[in-house]
């Protein structure tokens, strides 16, 4: 079961365009000082990896069995054709038996038709199976990423994630679509051809197969070399994807143009693209000459066979009939194509192992926030929230200092709590713990007396709504963005939610009304309008616990007043936790907590804390100096 917060935008470790070639740029990957997720060190492919790849095809073994039957039939039919040719040359033509000649000729035509039909059916089934396997991989990776905690996404570039799903899985298309069929088909064809060649003449067969072990060794060596280059190429593609995602987003374009860096970003992207060109050329040309030599030797094999047959006859050995020799050469040439294809498939499989390993890295990511098998589902949540001796650190394994220390807060159902403090005091971190975007490292957070770690994700997602400072909207219509909170919401419910959020009149006045596209990240709307859309979305969800994470801190005072009206409407009757930047928004809170370095240093109502003349009073004085009067 998956849990995805429906309004919170994960904090980004970097903003604006990234991946530029300017060594001074803090946005270059190697200069990014934020903690980032890095994949484990690459290990050589093991039999376990191969078995794991084979297991991907297990659900489709019935269809693959049908492909195997078609392959066997195709191979048998292909082997029959040279024997028909031998009979034509050794019997039908020399003896003038036109009836037999006609039958044998029709037989050769029939084998060609049968091979064509079998080939089409093989392609249809194998392509379907391959695409289903790719679908399974894409879905499995996406499902695993949906289960990852917020920490993973704050340490990983969005373009890297997209590259794994698009480029890496897309790069395996040829392998998973045709490799299984190709291996079975070509292996069967080679085996059948060798058996038929032995039946015709064992001496010529030995001559034909002398160099085959060398060819296999060369192909394996080429495959290992290409695998290394493929790993580098996929990393470069991931880096380029990250650059495109960040620098061509609305925020990236705004930053690039206002900083006068558009030309520089284009130039740097071109440099990164040149790197990819070099890797692509190296990947395609690696071992090409060696594989070409194999092709040349195999193509020259008929001449060697004719020479060997002539020597055998010339030195008193048993004569080889013309029909036998022609049929043998036909079989040998028929074996040439599947042999080369087998070698090429071996190279492709080794190359694809690099892609599979990158995908398996994501599939093997540990999920640190999971739902317990016996997790409790609460049908009607009252909204009592408690923080009991809460400790939290973002990286406890590496000895990072705690962000929150020994927090005890009781927030009864229907009451309001405001959390204030200087930047970095732990205010937003506190809000992440209630919807379980992170798990506490000490103590516990409970809703209605139950530890949030013991609740089902469905209960948490329906119980806790979040409105953050950085509102995220999809590139879709207003109605679709609102309906994301409640897919089965009626049009009237959507309008009622918009009215409560003080945004209905504005939407209704647009030419397309609720069908208006909001644009990338909602940039067709102002900051205040986006905030009210987020509030409307939360109202539609109707959670008993509401978290407001500095929802008005980036707005001007006039817009803030309009948004605050919407917030007051949605907060009525709900348990509300407000992370406050502007203290004017929290004066009426039932309880105000002042954080400093992750600890509670003051607690009380607005009047009580002002009278105390401590940290909170100082913040109020500073806030009054910085906030202009509304005119």
From TrEMBL:
Swiss-Prot/TrEMBL keywords: ATP-binding, Membrane, Nucleotide-binding, Transmembrane, Transmembrane helix
Predominant cellular place of this UniProt entry's protein: membrane
Domain of life: Bacteria
UniProt feature, compositional bias: Basic and acidic residues: 21-33
Topology in membrane: Multi-pass membrane protein
Localization per record: Cell membrane
Region (Disordered): 1-46
Spans through the membrane: 64-89, 101-125, 174-196, 202-219, 291-309
A GO term for molecular function: ATP binding
Record keyword Zinc present: no
SMART domains the record matches: AAA
Name of the protein in its database record: ABC transporter ATP-binding protein/permease
């Amino acid at each position: 079961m998956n849990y995805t917060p429906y309004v919170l935008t994960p904090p980004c470790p970097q903003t604006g365009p990234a991946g530029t070639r300017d060594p001074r740029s803090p946005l270059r990957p190697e200069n990014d000082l934020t903690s980032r997720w890095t994949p484990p060190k690459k290990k050589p492919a093991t039999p376990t990896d191969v078995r794991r790849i084979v297991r991907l095809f297990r659900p489709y073994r019935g269809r693959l069995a049908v492909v195997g039957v078609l392959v066997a039939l195709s191979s048998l039919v292909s082997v029959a054709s040279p024997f028909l040719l031998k009979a034509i040359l050794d019997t039908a033509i020399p003896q003038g038996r036109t009836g037999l000649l006609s039958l044998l000729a029709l037989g050769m035509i029939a084998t060609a038709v049968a091979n064509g039909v079998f080939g089409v059916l093989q392609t249809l089934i194998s392509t379907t199976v391959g695409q289903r396997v790719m679908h399974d991989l894409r879905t499995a990776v996406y499902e695993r990423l949906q289960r990852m905690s917020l920490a993973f996404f704050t340490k990983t570039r969005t373009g890297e994630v997209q590259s794994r799903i698009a480029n890496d899985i897309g790069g395996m298309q040829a392998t998973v679509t045709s490799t299984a069929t190709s291996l079975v088909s070509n292996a069967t064809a080679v085996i059948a051809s060798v058996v038929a060649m032995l039946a015709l003449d064992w001496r010529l067969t030995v001559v034909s197969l002398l160099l085959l072990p060398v060819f296999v060794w060369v192909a394996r060596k080429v495959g290992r070399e290409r695998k290394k280059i493929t790993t580098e190429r996929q990393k470069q593609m991931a880096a380029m994807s990250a650059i495109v995602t960040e620098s061509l987003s609305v925020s990236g374009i705004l930053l690039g143009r206002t900083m006068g860096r558009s030309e520089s970003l284009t130039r740097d992207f071109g440099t990164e693209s040149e790197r990819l060109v070099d890797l692509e050329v190296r990947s395609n040309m690696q071992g090409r000459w060696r594989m070409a030599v194999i092709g040349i030797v195999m193509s020259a094999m008929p001449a060697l066979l004719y020479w060997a047959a002539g020597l055998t006859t010339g030195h008193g050995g048993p004569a080889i009939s013309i029909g036998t020799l022609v049929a043998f050469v036909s079989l040998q040439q028929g074996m040439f194509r599947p042999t080369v294809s087998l070698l090429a498939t071996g190279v492709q499989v080794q190359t694809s192992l690099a892609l599979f390993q990158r995908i398996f890295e994501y599939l093997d990511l540990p999920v640190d926030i999971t739902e317990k098998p016996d997790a409790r589902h609460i049908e009607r949540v009252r909204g009592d929230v408690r923080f009991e001796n809460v400790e939290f650190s973002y990286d406890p394994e590496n000895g990072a200092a705690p962000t929150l220390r020994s927090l005890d807060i009781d927030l009864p159902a229907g009451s309001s709590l405001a959390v204030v403090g200087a930047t970095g005091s732990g205010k937003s971190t506190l809000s992440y713990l209630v919807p379980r975007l992170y798990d506490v490292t000490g103590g516990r957070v409970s809703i209605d007396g139950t530890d949030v770690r013991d609740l089902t994700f469905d209960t948490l997602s329906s119980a806790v709504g979040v409105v953050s400072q950085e509102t995220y909207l999809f590139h879709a219509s207003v109605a679709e963005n609102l309906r994301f909170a409640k897919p089965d919401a009626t049009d009237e419910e959507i309008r009622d939610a918009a009215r409560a959020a003080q945004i209905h009149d504005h939407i209704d006045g647009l030419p397309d009304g609720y069908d208006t596209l909001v644009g990338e990240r909602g940039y067709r709307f102002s900051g205040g309008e986006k905030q009210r859309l987020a509030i409307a979305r939360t109202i539609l969800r109707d959670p008993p616990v509401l978290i407001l994470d500095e929802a008005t801190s980036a707005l001007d005072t006039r817009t803030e007043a309009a948004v605050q009206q919407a917030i007051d409407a949605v907060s009525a009757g709900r348990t509300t936790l407000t992370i406050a930047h502007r203290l004017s928004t929290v004066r009426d809170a039932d309880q105000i907590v002042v954080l400093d370095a992750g600890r509670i240093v003051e607690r009380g109502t607005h009047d009580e804390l002002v009278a105390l003349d401590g940290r909170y009073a100082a913040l109020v004085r500073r806030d009054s100096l910085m906030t202009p009067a509304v005119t």
